[in-house]
Structure formats: C-alpha cells, structure tokens
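Project standup — Tuesday

K.O.: blocked on the structure for the chain from last sprint. Re-posting the sequence here as requested.
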Amino acid sequence: MRVTASAPGKVILSGEHAVVYGFPALVAAVNKRCQFTFEGENNSAFNSEFISKYSSLKQLFKAWKNLPTTKEFSLDSQIPVGRGLGSSAACSVAVSAIIQQLSKQSINLEFINNMAYKLEVLQHGKPSGVDNTIATYGGFLWFRRESPELSIRQTIVTAKKIDSLYLVDSGKPAESTKDLVMGVAERRQANSQPSEQIFRQIEETTRGFLRWMQGQESNLVELIRINHRSLVDLGVVGEKAQQIVQTIEKAGGAAKITGAGGVVKGSGFLLAYHPDSEKLRAIVDNIDLKLDQLQLGGEGVKLHE
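H.V.: unblocked you, prediction finished:
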C-alpha cells in the first residue's frame, strides 16, 4: 500500500515554557507543512514497543526505512528545523497518521495525537504536548497541560482576520528544545519564586492575546513586548534576538520568540508585529533580514490521495 499524510507547523502566540508547567498557551497552525509518504507492506512489528527502542526521531525513521517491508519512505518538510515552528511535531503527526492507516483504522485524531506525543517524547524528553496537538487539530487552540496524562484544549474562533503577524529569523539556536526546557527547569528548581511570577505574567499576557483575538480592546504591541521581557527573564532569549527585538521596538513595533528560544547563538523565529506592516518590512530590510508573512489557523493533519 501507498499512503501520504501531512501536518502543519505552529507558532505559539503566547505561553512558551510556561505551558510545560500547567499554564495556558495560545497556539496557531501555520501555512508550512511536513509531508510523509510510505509505500510497502504493513508490518505488525512497527508498534509502540518498536518505537520505544529509539532515542530520537532520526534513529526511528532510519530503522523504519530499513525494514524489509518498506519500499518507499520519504519526508518532505517546508518547516525549518530547530527554529521554533514545530517541525518535529508536524512530522510526528504525519507519521502517526500513516501508522493509523497501516493498521487499517478510520481516521482518529485522538489516536494520532497520542501517538505523535510518544514520538515527541523521543525528541524532546518531556514536551508539553502543545506542538503535536496543534499539528493534529489545526486552527487556533487554547491549550493547558493539567498533568502528564491530561491536557485540555479548546478551539478558538477569532473575531478578526489575523494577517498582521510576521516571522523574522534570528538564526538557528545552538541548543536543542530539550536543552532549553531543561535549563528553565533547573533554574526553577534552584529558585522557584521568580519563575512562578514570570509564568503568571506570561499567563496574563496569554489571556490578553486571547481578548485581542476575540475582538476586545487590547494593545497588541504592549502584549508582545511584555511577553518578550518575560521570556528574557526566563533566560531563553539570546543577545542577537534581543538586539533585533530592540530595533523593532524603537520603531514602534514588537517581537518575541515563538518557540523554545536560544541563548548562545540564534533564538529561532521571532513573531513580529507593527501597526504599519510596511514600516516593519523596512525595518527588517534595513538589518538585512527577511520578513515572512504568516497565514494562521490552517488545516490540521490530513491524508492525501
């Protein structure tokens, strides 16, 4: 049999890192997708036990590709790797959809999401689950992780067309998502009170962002600026990204990381906004970077003919 599936990347509008500790995140699917194609015989050996033998997606994919029952195995992703757009989660979700098809089950988003989370654990250790959830269901989601076994998601219907947010690439982080999440965990364990205060500030910002999406009065520039400062205080934003954000802020705009971040070199993609998008484009051009307009709220995982 031959089957192809794809899933979208994501941006976290607000809630990075705090979402790992039970605080809410507001997340959106983006117009960049990972597509996976498999051709071959169904193999009952490819199951949870098989998956658990490997410590990364790369190792798992290599093993699956080399199974004698596999004829074709290909990944084609539009999502830049390691820059905060959920590339591994999108690929994990697409692969999970393939696994479900190989077991001859009808499409079941909950199964796909749960399987993708197991794959994400291989890649990131203790992910929040927000990336694989938005890649599965698409659209806009309010997500909260109540416990390792339970998360709550709510589809958000926006009151406006959200077409004024852009991406600016601050460079690929030297650290992995796992490294950055562990770093926050270590600092939180060493001194929990400041971390809790930062997480609560991020939650307040997330709720403000939700009000903005629902058409209520909110100052989006100020919300993004507050979010950026909170993430700097968490220690996940490097100097290069901070300088880019400072340049955008001086011109009346705002920007923040939209993933785990990065400290040593780049911090991945920044989510940028300015009331005058042409002015934002001129600012970014002036510092010799590229501005990429986002299309948010797209379709989740899907199978292709």
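K.O.: great, moving the ticket to review. The first strand starts at residue 2 and ends at 14. The radius of gyration is 19 Å.
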